[in-house]
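Re: the 440-residue chain
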Amino acid sequence: MDNINKQFYNYLWAYVLVALSGCLGNVVDGIIVGNLISADGVSAISLSKPVNQFIFTLHLLINAGAGMLVGYALGQKNINDARRFFSISLSLSVGLGVLLALFCGVFFLDETTRLLCNNEQILPLARDYMQVLLLGNPAFILMWGLSTMVGVDGQPRLVSLAVIIDNALNLFLDIVFIQWLDWGITGSSAATVVGHLVGIAILLSHWWKPEHRRLKYIGISCESGGIIARIVSQGAPLAVASISLTLLLLSANRIVLSTLGQTGIFAFAVCMNLLQVYNLFLSGTCQTLQSLGAIQVGKHDAEGLNVVLRKAFRFITIAMAITCLFVWIDPQAIAALFGANNPDYIVETDNALRIFAISFIPFCYIYTLMVVYKLYGYHKMALFISLALSLTVIPVLWGVAHTVPNYLWYSYLIAYIIEALLIVLFHRIGHVKFELKAKE
């Protein structure tokens, strides 16, 4: 157990550093844009988040599923299977990334932009930001995919280093491209892409040493179809959760913009940046569960898996409590960080932040629980949670907007409470017992 304790914190702090770097990258990115361009620039980035989320969905569908399967294979010391999963996930990441870049970033850029933004003042900013974002999406998917594989292969610290340098370079280039080269909001997305390319180069150094070559690219064979199906099946719950979140972001942006206007969409953008702070701890916890937990499952070590789960839930509980308290102390200062100098913007953001700080607590628990169900092999329950996690919010948000719009910000909290009750109900109806199942 001492070894698992050490491994847990090695993985956890490595992934927390990864998430911290990403969190700072996203949040500080918004602060830079808000102060160097305008508050509408922050709104444009927020309206573009469904594109980011969709790209992340492709990563989850391919690499999160493959990462778990690689973990199971390595736990069973089946190196050949691990290499097959790795090779196919790498091929799919590059292939789908290029197709998305051509389809949405070249041929249907204007249609994609108008789908996400119907405000004529913000539209040009959103188009400029999304064009580079879409063209550079293969780098996004490959960066996240290699991070998953290098971490599962026992080098989470290299992942931390790559992501930290990636985001640090992104922030530095934000200032260079936006202020010094006067590229405007295009400079923000360009800086992100360049940062990912450097991160990829760092991750590839994992294969320089012979002892780190358990995973290597062996190409695609005639049996790849069955392996792709296994990868997609394994990653489906997380991918469904992500695509549902994409739909939620798209719907929420439209509902908030039509109900509360530019003031509301700015407040919502700041709240989505707050979610990045929660995601700092959530991502670190879930990545640890997926990597270290999958290895315990591969070993059929039920006691070791239980230790990992207990530590994960204890950590995320403490982290969320601290984050919520921090937001409640001075939400107006957070609004001001993002360039809010209009009193209406500050008041609206103050109100929204206090409510969202509480709303994201059940969200984090539910998301972590989805990973737990997946590890124990309860795929249907994990799939239900992944669907409900975002889709529950959409009808609640729509209903509140059309009946009591002044309480719009409570929609997320109401939806997550409803979903938590449904999970408890279905868990009891199904008589689910968390017992470790043998993996193929």
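The chain has one domain: 2-429.
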